[in-house]
Amino acid sequence: AHSCDIYAAGGTPCVAAHSSTRSLYGSYNGPLYQVKRNSDNTTTDVHPLFPGGVANAGTQDNFCAGTTCLITEIYDQSGRGNHLTAAPPGGAATGPEPGGYDFVAGATGAAVTLNGLKAYGVFTTQSTGYRNDNTNGVATGNEAEGIYAVFDGTHYNGACCWDYGNAETSNTDTGQGSMEALYFGTSTANGWVSGSGSGPWIQADLENGLWSGGATYQPGDVNPNNPSIDYRFTTGIVKGDDTNLWAIRGGNAQFGLLGNFYSGPRPTQPAGQDQYYPMRKQGAIILGIGGDNSDGAQGTFYEGALTIGYPSDATEDLVQLDILAAGYGTTSQTSGPPVFEGQVITLQDAQSEMYLGHDVNDVYVVPSASASTQFKVVAPNAPNSGCFSYESVDQPGTFLRHFAYQLFCDSPNNSDRSPGTFADDSTFCPETGFAASSDNAFRSYSYPTRFWRQVDDGNVYIGTQGGPFAWDNWYEFTTQASWKVNTVSL
Ligand code: AHR
């Protein structure tokens, strides 16, 4: 039995079941997710290899060869049609896509294996989010529900809010108790409470507050029973019933059982404010954003579901066993001609054959090779990325990084450009080139729809083939974003 079969047997069936990696029912053989390729804007669906099986990653790989691809829809496997697509603009933020919609995830940002079979997770960055405001069967009002998700416990940040769960249908903040979602990250904005240590934590987003569980619920409170948790594959659970009971549980999605981080009453708010009980759930579903489309957070989603009814701990313990049996594991994030640590390289784009070089911190393409066009491939500054970083040879201690979508050559603490996101933004994965398989394309770890791209102004950006910015121009993408890698020395 798979997770949603187990919930059904426990009397708390899934009313939404989302996964880009596998079927959440033993008999499910429908589509898992939709990818759109940017070369011609056509889409295809990725199905499981067999009923109940792992996603057929080969469908995506073949369809997306030579271009960039997006995960445009994550299908609901429950039969209720609660699919997730790009989130519309909300009270807190308007997304960068036309109409103010958020980005959707790049399709190759989170390769994993399940019992040795390759699949792709949903790697979401700032401004990326999915939503469905018109659902069927999801808990509303004070109805009980359960939520579980499997995600990458090493990919998070401190911004609001990497959520999966129940939110407002209006995309605006309608007050305490309008949401019940699983949150993952380190946000302690607004004096929000936290778990122990420095995070990240699994918490509940109940609107106008990320709650770790605890007795007093004063701003800045710590729930010592809610640990920092950063397993590469993490299981998280939030559930709330129709009395005043709610709970947080979590564990390692590759090993062992779930811990109980909190079970008890909902937070009490100061007199005169909206209270969290009774709940006023609205039944929209969000992924990667807050209820009001707060869109600063990042995270990676592999699978999850919402149930109707309050699942028992025993049911969730069986769900965890199914997750363990799914056999999540890491795999290579690179493809194309091998690029390896210690290699000193120069890079020529396939469009102009000019060299990627730098002048102190500025990055350009230049006509000929010199010391300033040499970069050393080094261990990734984002340690769990499976990618690399690229250190200047003539200016050691500086690395290629993107900032505001443009490439620079910075030291980690250059305060001109967001040192807080330096590690992620200076990490890039070599993939097979778009124009020729003898070339590489360099995918941004932190924005995996985006690749190093020289455009005709001589600057280098992280661009995609058709997107909202000037450097996303469809024309000449495949050559401008493919690079010949020359080895200088070993
Ligand atoms: O509750 C935390 C966040 O606060 C919600 O996700 C968002 O809607 C509001 O800004």
- Helix run count: 5
Question: Overall 3D geometry?
Answer: globular
Q: Describe the biggest sheet?
A: 7 strands, antiparallel
Instruction: Please identify the structural class as seen in this structure.
Output: mainly beta
Ligand types: alpha-L-arabinofuranose
How much of the sequence lies in strands comes to 25-35%
Low-confidence stretches: none
Compute the CA-based radius of gyration: 22 Å
What is the terminal-to-terminal distance? 51 Å
How many beta-strand elements?
A: 35
Mean pLDDT: 96
Measured as a percent range, the helix fraction is under 10%
What does the model show?
Helices cover 8% and strands 35% of the residues. The chain has 490 residues and is mainly beta. The strands form 10 sheets. Strands 1, 9, 11, 18, 19, 20 and 22 form a 7-stranded antiparallel beta sheet that branches. A 7-stranded antiparallel beta sheet has the order 5-10-21-12-13-15-16, with no helix packed on it. The protein has a 4-stranded antiparallel beta sheet with strand order 3-2-4-6, with helices on one face. α1 runs antiparallel to α3. The chain is globular. The protein binds alpha-L-arabinofuranose. Alpha-L-arabinofuranose binds next to loops.
